[in-house]
Amino acid sequence: MKQLQHSLSRWMEGGGPQSETVISSRVRAARNIKDYPFSCLASEEQSKAVLDKINTGTRGKEEFEGFRYLTMQDISELEKQCLVEKHLISPFLARESHSGALFLRQDEAVSIMINEEDHLRIQCILPGLRLEEAWKEAGCYDDILEGELEYVFDERYGYLTACPTNVGTGLRASVMLHLPALITTGQINRFLGALSQVGLTVRGLYGEGTEIVGNLVQVSNQVTLGHSEEEIISNLGSVVGQVIEQEQQARQAILDKKRDELTDKAWRALGLLKYSQLMSSQEAIVLLSDLRLGYDLGLIKEVNHKLLNELLVLIRSGCLQLLAGRTLDSQERSLERPVQIKQTLERFSKKHN
Amino acid sequence: MLCQECHKNDANIHIIKSIDGKQTEEFLCEQCARKREELDFSCEPQFSLHKLFASMLNQGLLESRQAMLAAKNQCPECGLSFAQFSQVGRLGCSSCYEAFEDSLKPLLRRIHASSTHTGKIPVRTQKRAKYKRELDQLKEDLQLKIEKEEFEEAAVLRDKIKAMEKDLARGIQQQEKKHNHNQKKEPEEGDQN
Predict the structure, then answer these.
(1) Best interface-test mutation with A: which of B110, B111, B123, B193 has the largest number of A CBs within 10 A?
(2) Which residues contact A325 (CB under 8 A, 6 or more apart)?
(3) What interface predicted TM-score (ipTM) does this complex get?
(4) Could you report the per-residue pLDDT of A126-138, keeping only the tens digit for each?
């Protein structure tokens, strides 16, 4: 089986509806099993029992054939970090879980986290704007697991979760957006307030508490109780639809005025990515955004979404060190980053010429 | 009367033996009676009053613990206090929702659209609700049969009810789930969209 740092997650393949602005759609459901305290209060033994219970439930099921099973105990810190960077697990599972484990589907679209903040976090992440499909996939595994395990469910409060912000559907749907035009023109600020009023939140690339870099934002639902899964998803989908429309208009406006500058910016970005000798991840993310915008506006054809997504992940510290095959300090990472970027770009152009 | 054995202490134990129809009587003091191996005092600890007391005490302790937990606003199941929850933001177990209901309700209303779930329901819960309804119906039927003095039919119903209650306690039998988990879940009635 391919190593984590070399395998492409399904969302990284690119494509899908609205892929010029939407990088990926993610849906996850939080579930807890009856008769066990929630993870934060569970003893080591209880967490282990939860893990055993889930393992017994999935054993021999054909739906789980071809899933990779990884325990947080058995994989290295760098591998965990790489999984976080690919958005396949949460930072909580990587750092804080007891007996934490992961079921990962072969295409890396579906990941099932065990002993996260909740006993189960069933997630599906797909490229483009495909929330319904992502929920359908995640919901399917939810059904299978529910057939084997008894969830804690309350008729009034729905699925009970460790954090009351997840109670009800236990559903968090989010969309990763690339909004260079709205962000550089400052128009995004108009949206931020409005989004929270309709029960949505905006966060940076790596979730809660992360700032917006590389013009990438995550929009997700805040409300989980009182709306059905379908309502949550269609609400998010329709708001995101409006944001996309505004972004497209803003892009067109910039393109009409500054086509040459945008073209130059995209090519410069490619040049820097190809020939730099020292590069921080921050710089790389910004350059990748310029390059992506240039590609989406048809100003540069030397790249594609798959390549851009792959680069977006490999420049991160965990994946980068795994690719290098050793741990690196900050300075060494800045040296290694351009090496890996260059190799990836060269592989791509060889394949496409 | 003095003990027939030591002739010193008061005889406070009266032993009557009946062997092969022949009855003998003895009046002994406690010490001498204990010395007789035929008198087995070893049953004493089994009948132990202090055990009984202890269990009553424990019961009392348990009740007072629960009362104490409730007074401190702690979950009776996992012991988490509301103050702890306020700090960590995470609940300890599913019972916390009930234990802290009064405090959680306004919080939930603030975070969410409402305080009632309108989304997906686990198939297992749907099945259980249906099962319970069926069971209630059978119990009603049983009552009717008894009133009509149709005891033979009542006995059949009684056995069926017993079996179903057992199943329910076991979390509804295995064979149901085998063919159920592949079925699609239907949205809750009254669910919009």
Answers:
(1) B111
(2) none
(3) 0.86
(4) 999 999 999 999 9
